Amino acid sequence: MDRFPQDYVLHNLPFLLLSGLDSRSPSEPDPVVKTHDFLHEGGFRIKVDAPIVSGPLAEQLLESFCEQDASDLPWHSQYSTSRSGRVFRIVKVGRVYTLPPRKAPPPPHSPRLSAVGANGSPPPALVLHSPLSPLTPSSPLYPDGIISPLWITKHQSRLPCALLTVFSLVSDPNTSSLQDNKLKSEINNVRSVLTSTNYKTRLVVILLGDGMINPADLEDRVSTIRRATGLDGKSIHFLAHNSSPKEINVFVNSVLSSLHPLCVEYYRDLSKHARRKRNRSTAPQPTVQPGNSHILSSQGWNVRYEFKLGVFAEFRQEMDAACRNYETAYDNLFAPEIIDAIAVWSPRFNEARLLADVIAFRTIRCLLWTDQVTTAVRSWVAHRDRIRDLVDRRGKGTDNYGWAAWQTAWAKVMADLVSRSEYPLLHVGLPNAPDLLPLFVDVDKSLSVGERFVPWELLHHEGYWLDIAKKCIYARRSWALQIPEEDRQSPGRSPASMVASKAHLYDTYLALEPYREVPIDGTPGYDYPGEIISTLDAAIRHFAKRGQLRKIEVLELQKALEQIETESWVEATLTLRQLWHSKKWRQGGWWKLLQGLGWALLDCLAHVDDGELLFQLIWELSNEVFDRKPNTNYDLRQAVTPSSTSKEPLSVAVGIDEALSPLVATFAFSTHDVFVGEPVECQLCILSRAQMGLPAIRLSEIKVVFEGGLKPVHLVAKGEEGGNTETSTVQFIDVQVDESLAMSLSSIRRSSAGAIPSQTSSADLTIPSNHTKIFRLRVVPREAGEIVVASITLIIDHETVSFAATSTDFSHSIGRWWESKAGKPTPRSLGQESNAFNKINVQPKPPKLKIEAPGLRRSYYTNESVTIDFDILNEEAEDVIVSLDARMISPVEGAAQIMWIGTGSETTPVTASEAGVLTLEKRELGTIPSSGKAVVSVRIMDTATAVDHEVELLATYRLRSEPETILTKVLTVDVGVIRPFEANYDFIPQLDHEPWPNFFEAPPQHSDSLTPLGLRHLYSVAANLYSFATEPVVIEAILLTATKVVGGAVCSASTGIVRKSANTDVATKDPNATISTVIEPDHTETFDFDLSLQKLILGDRHTVAAELALQIGWRRQDSDEVSTTLLEVPRLVAPMAEPRVMLTVSSTGVGLPDMEAHKLSFTIENPSMHYLTFNVSMEASEDFAFSGPKACAISLVPISRQSLKYRILPNKKNEWIAVHMTVVDAYFGQTLRILPGGSGVKVDKKGNVLVKV
C-alpha cells in the first residue's frame, strides 16, 4: 500500500479542524510534501489574535478530542458501528490557518493574448476554474488529466467540514464585558473569512470557563455572544472550569454528536454539486485553449465525477454507494475512448494505471467493509487479469521485472487491506483451539445459492497474500538479472541518442529504471533480499497465528537460503538452528531435506564460531541415514578444534531421543522380579549406526542412572586402548563392577559420577562403525521397590570439548537379551515382561522381625489416656539394628494426640504430615540380639472425639552383616474410641423452706458484694446415665457443675447420689446413699443432685440461665487410673421474677384404721415488685374428699409468699391421683401452672398434677 500516494488509499473520514488548543499550525509549507505550497497560494487565511487556551482543562479537552480521532480505526463496519457511526479525522491547529483557494489565479501575460480582439473589441473575460481542475493551465492535470491525489489531499487534509475554535471565557466581572466584545470580534472575523470562501465549512465555538461564573450571568453572556455573531444553538458550547475528566468526555461526545449530521450533510452537498456537473451535456472549456493538445473528453469527465462521488460517499461512510460509484468509474476508465486512447509513452498512461489501481483498491475496501469477502477476492483477481491484458495489448508485456513489481505491490495491497480491516472473522479464535485464528473466511451470504466458486476465491489471511508477494519478488529479481548490461548503465555514461531510444523499452510503473534496479557499476540497486526477508518475516508471523507449522518451516528455510545468498552467516545460522532442532522433519523421515539443512549449517559454521552447534551437527550427520559431505572432518575429537577460540573446554550436550545418533544405547535386565540383596544379570548394549568408513567413536565414559534403590553404573574407558582384534561385528564384554563412593580416574580429566556412590568399572569403549558391543555385568539392588532405567549417558572428554549424549526415553526401543549360540551373540526378544521395558520389581527381603501388641483392648473411651505396648521380636539369625517410625491416622483432624513413652521421650515432637495424620519422630532402638525382644510404648491422649484411629508402627532394620540391605516390617492396629456414657436429665422444682428475705428491711451492712441476697430456687436433678462400655466400669464420683451463669445469680450443686431403686420415679433422701457404683454394659444408673440458683440482688428481675456440665470420674475395674468424661447438660432457664405455685404433700392420720389422710400445701409465690391478687378454686374429684376453701382470693405484697392448705381423704391406695387446683392472676388474667415442690408430686405429659397416695 506504500507504493501508492497515501491520500489515494487512506479511508476518508469527515475532516474536523480543532483550533486554539495547540500552537502548532500546518499553514507553513512542509519541506517534504511540496503540495502544501500549491494548496496555499491564493488561499483564504484565517487568523485569530486571541491567545492559545492553556491549562489543565484545555489539555484534558485536547486529549479527549484526540481520543475521538478515528484515523487509525480498522476499516470495517463493525468498528464504526461501535462508535455509533460517529467517526472523524480530527487535526489540531493553532490560531493561523489557510484554506485552499477556490479558483486558480489568471494565467500570466502571454504574447499570444492580445489586449484587443480581432474586431477591435476587448477579448472575452477568462473563465477561472479550480487549481486542481484539468481546465486550469497551472494544474498538473492540464489539459487531459483525470484526477490527482492532490484533490483528495485538499478535502482530507486542507478543507474541513467544520472548524472548531476554542476561546477562554473570563470569569472576572470587571473585565468580562471587554473580553466578551473582543471575543465577538474574533468570531465575526472568522465568520467573514468563511463566508468569503463560499465553502460551507461549519464554524463551532467552544468556550472554556477560567473560573466560577454565576449561572444566570453565564446564560446571558453566552446568549449575547451567540446573537452578536449569528451562531445558532448547536454552534456554541460552554465547558465549566471544574469539569471532571468524565464530564469532559461526555461534553466532547455531545459536541461531536451534534456535528455529525451537519458534516454528513456537508459532504452530501458536495456530492450533489459533483452530480450536477456530471450530468452536463458538454465538456467545459478550459481557461486557455491548450493549442495542439486535446482536452479531457466527456467520458474522462464522467470518470472524474464518479470517482469524486465515491470519495464523498466514503466521507459519509456510505460504503455501498461508494462501491457503486467506484465500479462505474472503473468501467468507464477502461472504455476504449479513455485508456486505449492514451499513448503508451505518455505519462498519462501510468496515471491512468495508477487511477485504475486506486479505484480497484477502494472498491475492494468497500466490499470488505460490507462483508462481501468472496466478491472482494474476485475483484482483486479480475483487476489483476484486466491489467495483464492491458499491458499485453498496449504496454511492455508481462515478461519483465516491471510486471513482477506491480504484482508484488498488488499482492501486498490485499495483505494490507486484510490487515487494516482487522476482519472480524479472521481474528476470532477457533472453537476447538482458542489460541489459533482461522485460515480463511467462508463464502459470503451475498452470493446466490448454487453459485460455483474456487478455493482461491475465499478470503485468506495476510500470510497467504504475502506469500504470493514473495513469489513475485523472486520473479522480479529473476527478470531484472536478465536485462542486458548496456541497458543497466547510468544515463551519464551512455550517448543521449541511446538513452532516448531505450527510454520506453522497460515498464517502470511502480518499478525503478534498469540502471537503478540492477546497476552494473557496483552501486547498490534495489534491495531484493531485504524485501524478501521482511516479507517472509511478516508472512511467518501470520502463519504462526494460525498454527500452520509446515508452511512456517518452508518459509523459514527460504529465509535462511536468502540470508546465505547475501552471506549473512550469523542470521542464517540462527534461522537454520531453529529448523535443525525441529522434531517434525525427523518424525516424518525427511532425511534428504534434513541432510541439506545440515550441510547448509556446516557451510554457515565455516564463517561463524559456534563450536557447540558444530559438534552437534557432526554427531548427528554421522548417522548412516545421511550421505558423507565431501571435505568434512567427521572425527568428533578434532571437529571443534579449528573453530575453538576459547581457552576453556567447550561443553556440549545432546539428547539422543530428540536427534539422530550414530550410537544407540540400551540396557536390559535378565529378569523382571528379584529380591533385595540378590544379584541381577544385566546387559548394556552399544550399537553403532555411524556411516561406513568414518573413524571409530572413542567414548570416555558411559553412565547408567536408575530410578529406585540402585546405584548408578559407571563404565570408564581403559587407559590404553588397543586395536580391535575381533572379526565379528557383535562382541560380548564381561564387566565386574565395584561399589565405591568416589573413584580416582587418572586417565581422564573429569568424572561424571563425581562423589555420588556408584558401581564402577573400566572397559574398552571404542565403537567402530557397524559394530555392537554388549557389556555384561551384575548389579545388586539394596532397596525394595521398582527400579527403572532413568538415563544412559555417553561421554567424550577431550582437551577441547566435553560432550555428553543422553537417552532418557526407551519406550520406542525393543527389549532384547543377547545370548551366545554357536559361539555368536544372538538377540532374543524379552516379550511383554516388565524387564522388556527397562523396568524390574525388587521385592523386599522377607523380614523375620515380628511386631506384636499383646495388651491391645477391643475398644477405648473418650477422654481416656490410651497406652499401647509393642513387642519387637528378633527372629533373624543374627543381630539387627532397628529404628521405629510411628504415625496415627485419624478421620478427624485434631481428634487425638500421640507420643512415645519411655525414658526421656515424653516430649518427643509430633509432626502433622497431612490432614488427620500425626507422625512421631523416628526412634532408634539400637541393636536387638538374635531371639531378643524390645518393648516400646505409645500413648494416645486428648481423645475427646469418638472416632476410630489407626496406629501404624514401621520397623526399619538392617542386618549387621549387610548394612546396605534395608528391611521393613509394618504393623497397623485399630484403636476404636467410643463414648462411654450417655445421659438424660429431669429437672424438678423444689420448695425452698427457708424464709424469704424481707423486702422492707435493709440488707446487712457487713455483707459482701458477692454474697447472694436475692431469692433462691431449688431443683432436684436426676441424671439417668447409660453405659456404652463393653465392660463394667466403676463410677467413682459424679459432679454437676455450672460452666456459665447468666442473669446475676450464683449456682451450686451437690455431689451425685446413686438412686437405689431404679423403678422409683421420684428421688427420695436415703441416709445410706453412696456416690460411687459399678455400672454394667448397656445398663442405666440414676444419680440425684440438689441444684440451687440464687440471685445476687434482691430486686433483680432478670431471668437466670445456667449452662451445666456433668463430670463423670470413672475407671476400669482392672485399673486404678481415673478418667474424667464431660457430658453436656441442657440449659436451665429460671424466670425468677414470675409468680409460681408449688405443691407439697405429707401424710396425716385421721384416727381410723386402714385409712390415711394427706395434707396438700399450695404455696403461692410473688417474687415480683407488684401487689398481686390471685383467685384460687379447688375442683372436686371422685378419687378423694377434701377439706379447705373451695374458692378464695389471696393478695400478696411484693417479694412474699403464702401457703394454702388442704386435707384430702382418698378412696385409693398406692396410686397417683389427679388434683385440679386453678390459680389465676386477677390483674393479668394469667393462669399459673402447679409445680411439684417435693416428693410425692409429679406432673404428667398432659400437664395434670398427680399426688401419690
TrEMBL record:
The Trafficking protein particle complex subunit domain covers 348-623
The UniProt annotation puts the region (Disordered) at 99-119
| Segments forming domain Gryzun putative trafficking through Golgi | 657-1253
Q: Which InterPro entries match?
A: Gryzun, TPC11
On the tree of life, the source organism's domain of life is: Eukaryota
Protein name (record): Trafficking protein particle complex subunit 11 domain-containing protein
Which organism is this entry from?
Fonsecaea pedrosoi CBS 271.37
